[in-house]
Specification:
Blueprint (H helix, E strand, L loop, with lengths): L6 E5 L2 E4 H18 L5 H18 L3 H4 L2 H16 L21 H25 L6 H19 L5 H18 L4 H25 L3
Length: about 210
């Protein structure tokens, strides 16, 4: 698959490969559709996961690659949950669709604690297995936050967008720290979509939609 390594253009002296652009576009389309409460985001998500798997494989980023089956499983779960709600979970506006809900404060505290514990453990493992990683704990924190955001999105929890905002901000810092130029721009677009989606989903929550 030589096309993946094709340099499309350079940004601030750094090459942007075809696989970088493909994954970025798929990711942006996926979260845009999710933010607009469209269940079609999951179909795009399948292609996005496959593209990420290929990208991590070609760049030898095996720690991130190994997490893609988990992301795929969460995507399948979310696709099912959004389209097969229980009777008390149905949207008031679209019969057969899952309505937006929120975590309770104890659930939010448990989620935050879980992220810290798992991120620390994963960071320690990364530091041991991949000593070349310049920011193992920050990298692991982003990874765990992504999985949490995906899981909350699969359950259609408004809180998923708070998690995505934390992911986007952390990723911008991470990419800038290692000299990436293209990905901070992409993460900035994710950030804008996240803010928009927080407002959109709050309106849906209040309408029980």
């Amino acid at each position: 698959m030589d096309w993946m390594d094709t340099i499309l253009f350079t940004l601030a002296g750094r090459p942007v490969l075809a696989i970088d652009l493909v994954t970025s576009v798929l990711g942006l389309v996926c979260v845009f559709l999710a933010g607009r409460n469209s269940k079609y985001n999951f179909w795009v998500g399948y292609f996005y996961t496959a593209a990420l798997f290929l990208m991590f494989w070609t760049k030898n980023l095996y720690a991130s690659l190994l997490l893609q089956p988990v992301s795929l499983a969460i995507n399948i779960l979310g696709h099912y949950r959004w389209t097969h709600p229980r009777e008390n979970e149905q949207s008031s506006e679209k019969a057969g669709d899952l309505k937006v809900s929120m975590l309770s404060w104890p659930e939010r505290g448990l989620a935050a604690l879980s992220v810290l514990i798992v991120a620390f453990a994963w960071g320690a493992l990364l530091d041991r297995l991949f000593p070349a990683d310049p920011h193992p704990y920050l990298d692991s924190c982003v990874t765990v936050l992504i999985l949490l955001a995906q899981l909350l999105s699969a359950m259609k929890k408004w809180d998923c967008w708070v998690a995505w905002l934390l992911v986007n901000i952390t990723q911008i810092i991470l990419h800038i720290s290692v000299g990436n130029v293209f990905m901070p721009v992409v993460c900035g677009l994710y950030l804008v979509n996240g803010i928009w989606s927080i407002i959109t989903w709050m309106k849906l929550y209040r309408r029980k939609a």
